[in-house]
Amino acid sequence: MSSIRPLRRTAALAAVAVVALSACGDNADDSDGGSDGGSSGGGSSSGEQPDVNGDGDVTIGVLSPGDLNDNGYYESFVVKAQEFVDQQDGWELIQVGSINPADALEQARNMCRQGVDMVALAASELADALPAAEEDVCADTIWYLPSQTEGYELADNVVLSQDSASESLLAAGYALGLLMQDSGATTAGFVTGPELDFSIIAAQSFQAGVRQLIPEAEVVTTYTGDFDDSGLAVEATQAQIGQGIGGLYPYLGGATDAAAELGFEAGIPVLTPGTDRCGDGYAISVIFDPGEYFAAALEDFAAGELVGGETRIWRMGVDPLPTVQFCEDSGATAEHEQQLADFIASVGDGTIDPTAEVERLGS
């Protein structure tokens, strides 16, 4: 295997994501739907993909900080991976969830000791695991990073999928704004976990989206400190409903459904954090599904075409994902759907600059 360049931290983690991270450059569509614009190049892992370590087996290892049964963002990652692995001959998936970020590095080393060919981080909270990629214990592996993991120079055996939280959350707020216009509501709620860079940007982007249509709108934002603690999420959501919010975004992990249920009971529109859950009571699906991004990378990996050192950028209004859609029972009209489609298209063609809109309306 070719030597691994040291992973140099060139900036602070900026989760402009999710699921991250504003795209840059001109993007050309991939055959699997992602865009390659802004990629840093680099060579393929030196082993014969997909059996990178040459031991005769193909094993994918997934490390996640979240609940792998959260019915949302974290579960999506491992479900899509398992579906793909099950379609391959002799592949195996090893998954470890609910990892404390402080333990990320040692968990990555432990995963490598099990002879995996790929180490996949399911969320940027585990970015402290990255130094293991240049250690002997993880020689002959290729690494997959999610969108919020920004600020690192990618080594030859590391790939990154990147999207823009500013794009996704701006469109989410716009969609809710269309429904709030009809209801006369001027306040929305945003309940999330720790007060991290990416959750702050998400809240600001969401507010900027609502204010596209309701300039005086306020988004009440609560940071519970934990994406998975249902008790904290319920407490925060109850308080916001008591303040008369006209829509709710539970930007959470395992605590999503507990918060959403209160929104359903209150009869207000509720949005999903990352996956399509129309049919489960939600009014709006905000889809930046990390499992879909990972599945696209696995397709390239299976074909021996996954290129290390590369960033794949997924653009709203250009690629199939990320996107936002109204659910059947949302009360949205055909006019609303067209307005949302036009807004997303304007983000894709650059007519609307999410970063500028967040600066203008997000605080």
Helix content: 25-40%
What order do the strands of the largest sheet run in, or round the barrel if closed? 2-1-3-4-5-10
Which residues sit in consecutive blocks of at least 5 with pLDDT less than 50?
1-33, 35-47
Shape: globular
The CA-CA distance between the termini, in Å, is 48 Å
CATH topology grouping of the largest domain: Rossmann fold
Mean pLDDT: 87
Keywords: Cell membrane, Lipoprotein, Membrane, Signal
Organism: Trujillonella endophytica
Main location: membrane
Family: Belongs to the BMP lipoprotein family.
Question: Can you give a write-up of this model?
Answer:
- Helices cover 32% and strands 14% of the residues.
- With 363 residues, the protein is an alpha/beta fold.
- The chain folds into two domains: 1-163 and 288-316, Rossmann fold, CATH 3.40.50.2300; 166-287 and 333-361, Response regulator (Rossmann fold).
- Strands 2-1-3-4-5-10 form a six-stranded parallel sheet, with helices on both faces. A three-stranded parallel sheet has the order 7-6-8, sandwiched between helices.
- Helix 1 runs parallel beside helix 7 (290-302) and helix 3 (165-183) packs parallel to helix 4.
- The relative contact order is 0.18.
- It is a lipid-anchor.
- This is Basic membrane protein A.
- It comes from Trujillonella endophytica.
- One of its GO terms (cellular component) is plasma membrane.
